Amino acid sequence: MSASRPLPNPDPLTRPYWEGAKARRLVLPRCDACDQWHFYPRSVCPHCGSDAIAWHDASGKGVIYSVTHVHRAPSPAFEAMVPYAVAIVALDEGPHLMSAVIGSEIAQVKIDAPVTVDFVDEGDITLPVFRLASAAKI
Asked: 87 and which of 67, 105, 122, 138 could share a cystine (Cβ 3.0–4.6 Å)?
């Protein structure tokens, strides 16, 4: 029996994010009081303290802020994926997301490389991932 990868378990606070991903849209919380984006989802704005939070479409564009190239699986559930890249992506809107970078040779995945969001279905959930902008699907 092969191990399965752990997957997110949406809750009421994160449900809009996962529903957006299922629809192939990157949606993030933005405060309607101060107009600041933030991530991870919270019930009050981390910038001004307002509870006027709404979900909005983000561009899905950004740059790699930090990256790790994984050559040794952390558990049997990840063995088929190695080598792979995990990055912190600085989105154009400001928030930073941690995600996989797919569709390129691992050596091409570097800090400051422009990326664009893509989506991968994993069972009942759709995961936002990123591709190098030069390798984005058309």
From this structure: 67
- Examine the domain organization and report whether 67 and 124 are in the same domain: yes
Tokens in use for 10? 């949406």
Residues 6 or more apart whose Cβ sits within 8 Å of residue 77: 2, 3, 4, 5, 6
- Neighbour count for residue 80 (Cβ, 10 Å): 10
- Closest by CA to 20, choosing from 131, 130, 125, 138, is 125
pLDDT in tens, 82-111: 999 999 999 999 999 999 999 999 999 999
Q: Are residues 19 and 63 in the same domain?
A: no
Tokens of 109: 């995945």
80: its two tokens: 């088929």
Tell me which residue range forms the domain holding 54: 12-58
pTM of the predicted model as reported, rounded to 2 decimal places: 0.91
pLDDT in tens, 49-68: 999 999 999 999 999 999 99
For the chain, how many structural domains are there in total? 2
Q: Which residue has the tokens 């001004």?
A: 48
